[in-house]
């Protein structure tokens, strides 16, 4: 699970949302509720999330290509 926003969102908004989400994830009640829903809360930075997304896109794109899958 990741919290994503629109392209070109101002960095000040990204940083504010990131700070507030990380604060929420520090709350034991929020953590327990998320875990009860099957979510594994991690938190982190916007740059770390961007790197994870880039890595996952590359990994899955390679798999799709190697399998010869085509999408219409």
Structural description of this entry:
There is one protein chain. This protein is an all-alpha fold. The chain has three helices and no strands. It has helices spanning 11-25, 28-36, 46-67. The longest helix is centred in the C-terminal third of the chain and has 22 residues, at 46-67. The mean pLDDT is 93.
Helix/strand layout:
Blueprint: H1 11-25, H2 28-36, H3 46-67
Characterize the biggest β-sheet. none
The portion of residues assigned to helices is: 55-70%
Alpha carbon gyration radius: 16 Å
Shape verdict: extended
Q: Please trace the helix and strand order, writing H or E for each element.
A: HHH
Poorly predicted sequence stretches spanning 5 or more consecutive residues: none
Number of H- or I-type helical stretches: 3
**SSE class:** mainly alpha
DSSP, total strands: 0
Task: Look at the structure and give the mean pLDDT.
Answer: 93
The termini sit apart by 27 Å
Strand content: under 5%
Summarize the structure.
The chain is mainly α and 72 residues long. Helix content is 64%, strand content 0%.
Primary descriptors:
mainly alpha; 72 residues; 3 helices
């Amino acid at each position: 699970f990741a919290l994503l926003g629109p392209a070109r969102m101002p960095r000040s908004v990204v940083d504010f949302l990131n700070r507030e989400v990380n604060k929420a994830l520090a709350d034991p009640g929020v953590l327990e509720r998320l875990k009860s829903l099957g979510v594994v809360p991690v938190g982190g930075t916007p740059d770390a999330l961007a790197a994870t997304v880039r890595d996952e896109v590359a990994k899955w794109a390679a798999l799709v290509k190697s399998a010869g899958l085509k999408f219409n």
